[in-house]
Design goal:
Helix content is about 25%, strand content about 20%. By secondary structure, the protein is α/β, with parallel strands linked by helices. It starts with 10 loop residues before the first strand and ends in a 19-residue tail after the last strand.
Length: about 170
């Protein structure tokens, strides 16, 4: 079942480089959400790994050869985002105040008793400030093994983002 959208969708995309620190990247994302809402957009869409920041060095270093790689990977894992967390609560609050739907890529950290997994996760947040979708792929040492899958089996209802199904890769 699909829903008619009732007119054009105004959206904003953002692919500019964010400041290199975790806190400043979050601040910049929040500012851009507010700016897009003030401009009348219904959606604002950020790229993968936007928070805590996409590790641009990932394509420049070779695993097992470059000694800096372990240090840089440890920094990415240390700054990865838990879901839910203060970061996701803040994103939801800003989306609600700005009356805008948000799609943002994050590097997610999931820890169990004896295992840590990082994911490249796409969060879908409604203008009502609710996370209605999470799509993730495990970050492994080889990109050929990446495979996207829904992190939760959720579909937004009528109170959701105004469409029947939301997905992303």
């Amino acid at each position: 079942m699909s829903h008619a959208l009732g007119g054009p969708i105004r959206s904003a995309t953002d692919n500019t480089t964010l400041a290199p620190t975790y806190d400043s990247a979050l601040e910049q994302v929040c500012e851009r959400i507010v700016d897009a809402g003030l401009a009348g957009a219904r959606w604002v869409i950020f790229p993968e790994g936007c928070l805590p920041g996409y590790p641009a060095w990932v394509w420049a270093l070779q695993s097992g050869i470059d000694p800096q790689l372990d240090t840089l990977r440890a920094e990415v894992v240390a700054n990865a985002i838990h879901i839910p967390s203060d970061v996701t609560d803040r994103l939801c609050s800003i989306a609600q105040r700005a009356h805008i739907n948000v799609v943002v890529g994050v590097i997610e950290r999931v820890a169990t008793n004896d295992h840590l997994t990082t994911y490249n996760t796409l969060l879908v947040i409604t203008a009502q400030g609710q996370i209605v979708g999470m799509y993730r792929t495990a970050l492994t040492s080889t990109s050929q093994r990446w495979m996207w899958f829904p992190a939760r089996n959720e579909t937004p209802g009528d109170e959701g983002a105004g469409v029947s199904h939301i997905g992303g890769i």
